[in-house]
Amino acid sequence: MSTIAAKLGKKIFSNSDFTKDRNDIFEQYVEQLIGNKPLLERSLVKRVSTTIQVFHKSEDEKLRKEASALLAILLDIVGDDYLDLIPIAKNIFINSGDFPNVSLLDKRHPNVSINYGFNNSTKFELKKEMNSVDELSFPLTDFQRMLWSNLKLDKDVVTIAPTSAGKTHIILSYLVNKVIKSDGSFAAIIVPTRALISEVSSKVFEIAKEVDSENELEICSVPRDEKFNSKTIFVMTQERLYELIQRGDLRFDYLFIDEAHNISDDSRGVLLHLTLDKICDESDPQIIISMPSESYQNAFSAVFNGVEFKKEITRHSPVAKILLSVVMKGRNIEIERYNTSDKAVIPKGFTGTTTADLVYRLGKGQSNIIYRNQTDHCENTARAIAALIDDFDITPELEEAADYIEQFIHKGFTLASSLRKGVAFHYGPLPSSVRVMVENLVKTGDINFIACTSTLAEGVNLPAKNLFLTNPFRPVMAQKPERLEDVKISNITGRAGRMVEHFSGNVFLINHDKWNYQDYFDEKEEKEEKIPTYYKSLNEDLASVVQALQGLYPYSEPDQYRFYTIANKLIKEFENGSLDDRLLAEELTLGEEGKELLLWHIEDARNSLMIAPFILEANPTIGYIQQNRLSQFFDSLESYEEWVLPHPKSKDLYSSLVKITSKLFEVGVYVSSDSYSIEHVAVIASKWVSGKSLKEIIAEQIVWDKSRPTSSSVNQSVRNVIKVINNDITFRLKNALGCYYILLTNTMKLKGVDKTSVKLHTYLELGACDDRMINLINLGLSRESAKEIQESIPISIEIKSIYDLLVLLERGLLSNTHPVTLKEVRFLLSK
């Protein structure tokens, strides 16, 4: 049947009558987008719905994709008018295993009674039963069912699926069930960014709560030295997990790498590689790897040498993506369905050619994401869209959010005024409490328009009906902008359409013919096979790796962490005898001459190593030459009184930070990211680590920015503060002080010096030094929310687990906190 359907489908697809019918439907789809009532004759709907059924029975992926798109379009524009379309859709969704869409059909059309007959009804029930499992309360898609089956068989799994395919929820559900039902086990979940820690932690807690087992499970997101619950799930970035496993006493039963394509990321891929190596040296976990692109499916073969992975791959998502090319010409907007002849022309209804006007025209009444390449572009776009909205009934939630911005950030931060119109922006240098607040408001539907940078590609779950793209690229300072990786574009477009909310998501490509890179959506027969950054750098940048082995790679270069981490990894492998195997890996394409050169420099570096190998391993991003210099400095000291790291509450914190950071700069261990002075970074770091409010830090930044010759705004000052915190303090300075602490402590121990040095670096990443505030951040709360709760409840109350927080909420002890803080707690606790 599929062969016949394929032949028939191809004939229909190339038929001019079908082309006309499809264009007629597309024109009405566009009319609906701008708020007009679609007009489609029953005969046309009947013809196209018959065609959809033929396409769907074909094995031709292109035809099946077209069937999904056309069905989603028809359901959106005439689902309420022609109810006989509903049983056709339900039949297709059930046969496809798209049970989320079956649920959406039932939600939209609860009164449609369908009699399929005994045979079909039995078939549907069997399909539903086959896609249901005891541990989950909803039927799975075919992809989810196969993924679950492989996980339950205790297989090591690589799963590849689009962003909206629902793979993460299945994996988290599996891990929670396995850990809870065990006598005791540890699961490590690696997420690519700190922003995702809270989201994943919240999901884990919600799943545990659904099975009434939340009290049995500990969720940990911050490295610490204390003992853990026997049933613990660690949700961490690779940086935090690497720090945690330096303890040496943890064994993991399960390892889940989310957004695993980051193994090929230039800036962080090598550290992820090192973290995985370290875990597998100590543990033999079930390995679960999740990614959105097939290009990365073999990237872990060398990382997990000898592991046989079961691969579960799909390109299908229950949410169809409708690609729409948009051009403004004169008084009209021309909209084409990308890679088809479908075209509709509508009046602009506005003068000019601004993105904001276009977005408001096409997105009014729907949820919308506007992708922008730069942070200030996000702010400007949000401001411009808000200015177009005259009559807007602000919800209490939005007024609370705007008030929170004014109280806790700054009255002049333009996000407050935008929020009062249901508009927001979202990017990396946003305070964590504000970012969480905005994300929650998007999920609840209070925000209708949100302008975002590539944070969308990092797994942040912000789906909307419409996504607008304008010339996407990766900005590079003083250089030509670079093409975004296909996996990032895929992740970004994956935010168009929300499962169990939309049958489709619209992706608007604005002025596509003027983009720097126009091939993002071209159908490629062969996709490039990606390999880990570790091997790619050896293959393509051997000279830079050799420079790092010699300690000569410039510290001021953005790539210094990558190359020094690779150099350290090579020395470690030489030391433990695994280097020969690494040099034989298929991913390494160096010739014999290149390998000999590399080996010579590795051996020379090892012979030049003055510090203990375990210290080198503990500081993976800092070159051994720099560590040698720092170690020599400590050896030369007669007194350590002035060089021990102070407690964050010490009155000498600022002066000590300036003195120590200057030494770290001198030996090449620390370099600021944007040429900020050490004194400037130390001022912000001192206030940040001691628990001062962001509002206070931002106010001082505004005064400082105004004293400089270049013009500045409140928004820019907020971004400057968060960039310093994110880049210089919680990453660069934190790593440098971690290295400082280990080398200083080791030297004092060898010399028998009885002095205590504080782990200042652990406090720096969190922006807190009080145990209770640290515990609150560990639970998944933002730093500012943790600070407010810390200050609002009696000092005698302990908060050691997420269940203690739940008790506080239920007893009303958090009622004095800002409503936005209270909502963040409720979201975290799934209340």
From TrEMBL:
PROSITE patterns recorded: HELICASE_ATP_BIND_1, HELICASE_CTER
Bilayer-spanning residue ranges: none
Tagged with keyword Amino-acid biosynthesis: no
Residue stretches making up the Helicase C-terminal domain: 354-553
Record key words, sorted: ATP-binding, Helicase, Hydrolase, Nucleotide-binding
GO terms, molecular function: helicase activity
SUPFAM superfamilies given in the database record: P-loop containing nucleoside triphosphate hydrolases
Ranges of residues in domain Helicase ATP-binding: 148-312
Protein name per UniProt: DEAD/DEAH box helicase
Lineage, highest ranks first: Bacteria, Pseudomonadati, Pseudomonadota, Gammaproteobacteria, Alteromonadales
